[in-house]
């Protein structure tokens, strides 16, 4: 989800709720402790230099049980970060501490924001010699064409 998308969604909500992909909700007394831009410059294993930018939200589970972040307040934090930091419309990455600090992609299911698990990948598979994954087929799904198939009595085998 891009920053512009969350800005369009927030005014339509009564509450801001975040949920992990496994269904567990972030406690409703969370704080958004940071909004910023993270820039990553790196070289992949194939030697290609790459640059990535994401908008970062950091969620913190505070001991302030009376605190509830309302959509308007989060929208104001986002607007202030755009104004003061020059944040652009990039994909949002959410940091949230479960067992350790995790980084998540963000989606919206119509009611809550869902923290989607991120995965790693090789960005230069062709340079590493990693073969492309072959399509797996079930024999039962293959159709037999009568004019091209070989039968035991046909002498073609």
UniProtKB/TrEMBL annotation:
Pfam families: DUF6428
Protein name as annotated: Uncharacterized protein
